[in-house]
Amino acid sequence: MGILFELVWRKPSEKAGGMPAFRSGLEAGQPAQQCSDSSWLVPDSGKANGIPDTGLAFADWTIPLVAAFVGWFTNWVSVQMLFYPIEYVGIDLYRKKHVPYGLIGWQGVVPTKADVMAARLTDIVTAKLLSLPEAFSRLDAPHFASLILPSIEESIRNEAPNGAAWALLLKPLLHWALCRVVRALQRDISQVLDLEEVVTDAFLRDVQVLVELFQRVGRRELDFLVISGLYFGFVLGLAQMWIWAHVPRAWTLPVAGAVVGYVTNWVAVKLIFEPVEPVMVGPFLLQGMFEMRQPEVSVEFAEFIAKRVLTPSRVLEGLCDGRRQNEFAALVRANVPVVPDSVVAAALSGLRNLAKEPPSHAAHVYAADALGIEATLAHRLQLLSPKEFEGLLHPVFQEDEIILILAGGVLGVAAGLVQLFFGWGGPSALPAAGMTSLSGM
Are 265 and 402 in contact (CB under 8 A)? Predict the structure, then answer.
């Protein structure tokens, strides 16, 4: 890493008798107005290599590069802190609920607030994007009944008392009975399936699913957040270099690092989401990066929800084992011939077994296509206003935006201190910097 101090060590002079002489900006005892020669700013090695005398040392020109690295690194760490670690790492002495940091330790912002963020996403999906009656109305009852029949028939045969006899007896009626159940399901789906529970459970059962959703739909914005630190850090580093050329003080290292880390995080987050609504500035249309990608993000979000959250398997699980499972069992009971409860229970067990089948199972393939969840979500997401659409991703940053921005500043301070101790000049950098500061008093 570069350092903001020029360290110029000379061999012991004949007069000094063994102690190296450090030259600061002003020679000891020399008046400031007489120090017109700026050659002390350029190391001999630089001149020897043909570097023009610009009044800045070769090490000074590394300042923008180091600032660019600090900007990139602090932004990269901030992005990681959004999602990881999934579980709290540290000494959990005391920590408030929904707060990612403890006295000693950290947990990713998204995992920490998984229930809050899952609830927000669930509200968007269930209240604004998807209608259960509409989706289930697309099922062809006879066809779907024929696809689920083998699993139910097998379960009755294997699990019900006298199952083989009941399976044989019900064989001529089973398809008809299942058609009745599917049609009743289409009429009363909102009473027997809690869609909010299905979506929330998918996110909270495995928080990694929620993390992957945000990482996928926001991947370009997250990449921009990281790479922008490199560019913004370099620009700020140019200003830092100018300051160092005029005020070569040790404190400028951590202070400048803090500014770079803080400002790069703040600017990047603002550019991602603001302005929410498109604004014309002369011939240019300005809008937040995420809002500008609404058509693309809508497709990706819909695909993820359809394949990882609202899958046919999860819907079946929600029917059979959700908080409204008794209502679903009653619906099945009311639409089948008069058979023992043990046979009905075996039929429900067949649906549970079907839920465990892979996505390639014929019933799952048909249900996914017929329900049209992916196409419906993609279309309606594109119809949302920019303000409503922003709610898909912005909460990830908004919840602890100030913490992440301040974290960039803290990491920048740390980078500056590392420069101070281990920068150009090796272990002698710190005392040399101290001598530089003292000489300017």
Answer: no
